[in-house]
Write a structure and sequence with these properties.
The complex is a heterotrimer of chains A (about 70), B (about 350) and C (about 220).
Chain A lengths: L1 H20 L2 H48 L1
Chain B lengths: L1 H23 L5 E6 L2 E3 L3 E9 L11 E5 L5 E3 L2 E6 L2 E7 L10 E10 L3 E12 L5 H7 L32 H25 L2 H32 L8 H21 L4 H25 L24 H36 L2
Parallel strand pairs in B: 2-9
Antiparallel strand pairs in B: 1-3, 3-7, 4-5, 4-8, 6-7, 8-9
Helix pairs in contact in B: 1-7, 3-4, 3-6, 3-7, 4-5, 4-6, 4-7, 5-6
Chain C lengths: L1 H19 L1 H21 L5 H21 L7 H10 L2 H31 L6 H26 L5 H27 L8 H27 L2
Helix pairs in contact in C: 1-5, 2-3, 2-5, 3-5, 3-6, 3-7, 5-6, 5-8, 6-7, 6-8, 7-8
Classes of the chains: A mainly alpha (about 70), B alpha+beta (about 350), C mainly alpha (about 220).
Chain lengths: ~70, ~350, ~220
């Protein structure tokens, strides 16, 4: 569980650190090839969001399973 | 099996279609950049043009180009040189006067050739004039007629100079946002059902739909911020539609705070449902009426409906509408999982 | 007919209660006065645009304060007694109507005080007072309903703010815009569509409150 959260953080920070640095290199990169990397970024954000939701759902199910086990 | 799960498959198929077609169909050839952006009337200028997805032919006679200052006044290029498939140089001799009393007039650049079709860059060159002589300008700018324009062949998405390839985000950012709205509508439907029947199951459904709607709203806002950063220049531009979506999220986050203020499941359900319906009836004016009251960077500001023929052509519609349905079905699937979990929890842990 | 009689009876009851608990209403009035005064001494110069925004913000906070108590000044048992006798629609209509009157008085008082200390930039009084009237109705309906929900919880004041403020934004923005137009700050003749927006919102709020309140009060 901890490793998964860690990897999510790596993913998030991997995308946010260069953004907050505001360096011209990133803007140039995003502007290249008709700004296609902006589309890549948007798709990545959606994917990360859905994965985070899945992780939360996973934990909830695990918690319910444990509670049901304890009740029996 | 198929009878029960067909909608999940449909959602996935529609999304795969939206992803592949939405990403693979090329953009229409267009004008990416011109220089210089301003010129003085009465002087000869050479305009360097950078095309996007163009294939300018080596034979310059196959290319035609005009500067157009208004609906009836235009000026044809004197000579045209091709430097590469993506670049041409145009020579214009600007007349001494413009057909107007204005000091500066923006001229659109129109390039036409058989293979790439017609390309337009609005407000490409700003022309300044010293001698105000509209009558002479009228004659000088009426020498040519723009006609026999070629159409771009094949399946294309429109080229917009600021957006470029990011116009494809319509299928991810914009349709996600529409899906969010449908999820909120579904949530209201189940809230009404709960109030009528008092069944807790319907409240679980309503809560799940709201939860996924909020997830989609956050994703819509984040993707919008990324898109805005590289087209408008800032993550958050205080655009009224961004603010409105943020407010919509506040409303639904308050819904969860309200639910958590009560211990009793039935109270949670009843008050939550009442608030949900009440909030939704104010969300509609919030999202649809208020953005039209003021200027917005989004398409559709200034009283026009969003996505007129200019911004969403028929090719885009062929991907856009399936994408909305696909995202909505995916949201329904996610909400379905969440609701089943809530129902199970209530069943096994209530005793 | 019975409904109207019940509403009249409830309105009279609200007024009597308010008269008996004069300290509550005078508290709100004092609240308005001190807010106006604080705004006046902290702002160096109040021009039209700032005047407009500050005015509606003061009205907003005064309304929240005035309406929060709407469902809590009577004891639970007495409420139970009303509820067993009366039509819930009469209760919400009477409360909404009474709160609307209260807000109208409050807003007009704020307007008078604010004009007294900061000058009166309103050029076109018609749309301005129409905005005050329609806006007060919208504020009253929204906050009455929200206070009906919030009164069931322990953290009333917080809930009032987090549930009410996002919901009030469409009404508030339309009012600010109408105010700006009546002061000649922005050009254009969208007054008609603004009025239509406000009337539409008010009608929707009225309908939704009438439909939903019966589910809220039996508790």
């Amino acid at each position: 569980m901890r490793i998964r959260i860690l990897s999510i953080f790596c993913l998030l920070f991997g995308t946010t650190i260069p953004l907050s640095a505001q360096d011209g290199g990133l803007v140039d990169f995003m502007d290249s090839i008709g700004k296609i990397y902006v589309v890549v970024g948007v798709i990545l954000v959606i994917f990360i969001g859905l994965v985070i939701y899945l992780i939360r759902l996973d934990r909830k199910i695990a918690r319910l399973e444990n509670q049901i086990m304890d009740n029996d | 099996m198929i009878k029960k799960h067909w909608w999940k498959a449909l959602g996935v198929v529609l999304l795969i279609y939206a992803f592949t077609v939405g990403l693979l169909v090329p953009l229409k050839p267009g004008i990416q950049q011109v220089s210089p952006r301003s010129a003085d009337a009465g002087t000869p200028i050479t305009v360097l043009v950078n095309g996007y997805n163009t294939s300018y032919p080596a034979d310059p006679t196959a290319i035609r180009a005009w500067l157009k200052v208004d609906s009836i006044h235009a000026l044809a290029a004197n000579s045209i040189r091709q430097t590469s498939r993506r670049a041409i140089e145009l020579d214009f001799v600007l007349p001494a006067s413009l057909p107007s009393r204005a000091d500066v007039m923006p001229a659109s650049l129109i390039i036409d050739e058989a293979q790439s079709g017609v390309q337009v860059l609005p407000d490409a060159v700003f022309i300044r004039q010293q001698v105000l002589d509209p009558a002479a300008g009228n004659i000088a700018w009426s020498q040519t007629v723009i006609q026999d324009l070629h159409k771009t062949s094949g399946m294309n998405f429109p080229f917009r100079n600021i957006l470029k390839e990011t116009i494809r985000n319509t299928y991810f950012h914009v349709s996600l946002w529409f899906a969010m709205l449908f999820l909120f509508i579904a949530s209201v439907y189940y809230s009404i059902k709960h109030l009528r029947t008092r069944e807790l199951i319907y409240d679980h459904w309503a809560e799940s739909f709201t939860r996924i709607g909020v997830l989609f709203g956050i994703l819509g806002l984040t993707t919008g911020a990324v898109w805005a950063r590289f087209t408008w220049g800032a993550f958050w531009s205080w655009d009224i539609k961004q603010n409105m979506t943020a407010i919509a999220l506040l409303i639904y986050l308050a819904y969860f705070v309200l639910r958590n203020s009560f211990e009793d499941a039935e109270r949670q359900a009843r008050l939550g449902a009442s608030y949900n319906i009440f909030a939704f009836s104010l969300l509609i004016p919030l999202i649809y009426i208020i953005p039209r009251l003021s200027d917005s960077l989004h398409p559709g500001s200034g009283g026009n409906p969003a996505f007129g023929s200019e911004d969403l052509d028929n090719t885009m519609r062929m991907v856009f509408y399936p994408a909305i349905i696909g995202w909505t079905l995916l949201g329904y699937w996610l909400a379905n999982l969440s609701a089943r979990l809530l129902i199970l929890r209530e069943k096994y842990l209530s005793e | 007919m019975a409904l109207i009689r019940e509403i009249g009876w409830l309105l009279k009851k609200e007024l009597t209660l308010e008269y008996r608990m004069r300290y509550a209403i005078s508290g709100i009035l004092l609240y308005v006065l001190s807010t106006v005064f604080i705004v006046y001494i902290s702002a160096v110069r109040i021009d039209g645009a700032v005047w407009n925004v500050l005015f509606w913000i003061i009205v907003l906070f005064a309304s929240v304060n005035a309406i929060t108590k709407s469902f809590q000044q009577e004891s639970g048992q007495r409420q139970l007694y009303y509820y067993s006798l009366l039509d819930p629609r009469a209760v919400i209509l009477a409360k909404g109507l009474y709160n609307c009157l209260l807000l109208l008085v409050l807003t007009l008082l704020t307007y008078a005080c604010f004009s007294f200390v900061a000058g009166n930039p309103v050029k076109d009084a018609g749309p301005f007072f129409l905005a005050i009237f329609l806006g007060s109705l919208g504020f009253a309906l929204t906050f009455t309903f929200i206070s009906g929900i919030a009164s069931k919880a322990d953290n009333r004041a917080t809930l009032m703010a987090i549930l009410g403020f996002p919901l009030i934004i469409p009404i508030l923005l339309t009012m600010v815009k109408m105010g700006a137009q009546s002061m000649g700050l922005i050009q254009g003749n969208s007054i008609r569509s603004d009025i239509a927006t406000l009337v539409g919102i008010d009608l929707v709020l009225l309908a939704v409150s009438l439909l939903l309140f019966p589910f809220l009060w039996r508790d």
